[in-house]
Amino acid sequence: MGATKGVRRSTEAYKSFKDQIEALWNFAVMICYAVPTLKKNIKAVEEAIPNYSIPKNDLFSHDDSTPEQLKLLAADYKHRLTAYLWLSSFSFFEAYVSGALRELFDAYAHRADRRDAEGQKAFFAEDTRFERYARPGAEAVARTDPAARRRQPER
């Protein structure tokens, strides 16, 4: 639990983040199987071993990469794949944080719009000083901890 302590796993942002990361890693696993197989096929074609060929690119039909070009691309795929995984993971995490904050703001605002002080207080730790004002400069009407009742609001 260490690294995810305090992470709210019930948010839509977290579910999306988890799905994106899982898909990314599944893709990386597939690449780690595909590239060595491609290297093996290239070597077999170069050695004229029967029944081996270089598969056609089924996504970019106009691509006409030579075996030499493919070998160059495959040579450092682990390094490039690692970089792409890191960059993608950070992008997904950034989207997660943004989404989680949006969900938090929306949920808090929903309770504020309904003047649900108890619902708003649920977003904070139990000992948090919580004050709600009816209008600017008005006396506080709700606080979370008993000690806060004795303190004057800070202005």
Question: Any key phrases for this structure?
Answer:
mainly alpha; 5 helices; 59% helix; 155 residues; 2 domains
Helix/strand order, N-terminal first? HHHHH
According to DSSP, the number of beta strands is: 0
Measured between the Cα atoms of the first and last residue, the distance is 40 Å
Structural class: mainly alpha
What is the overall silhouette?
Answer: rod-shaped
Largest sheet: none
Number of H- or I-type helical stretches: 5
Q: What percentage of the residues does DSSP assign to strands (E)?
A: under 5%
How many domain regions?
2
Q: What's the helical proportion of residues?
A: 55-70%
Average the pLDDT over all residues and give the rounded result: 82
Report the C-alpha radius of gyration, rounded. 28 Å
- The residue ranges in which pLDDT falls below 50 over 5 or more consecutive positions are 1-5
Description:
There is one protein chain. The chain is 59% helix and 0% strand. It has 5 helices and no strands. It has helices spanning 12-46, 67-75, 77-113, 117-121, 146-150.
Please write out the topology:
Elements: H1 12-46, H2 67-75, H3 77-113, H4 117-121, H5 146-150
Helix pairs in contact: 1-2, 1-3
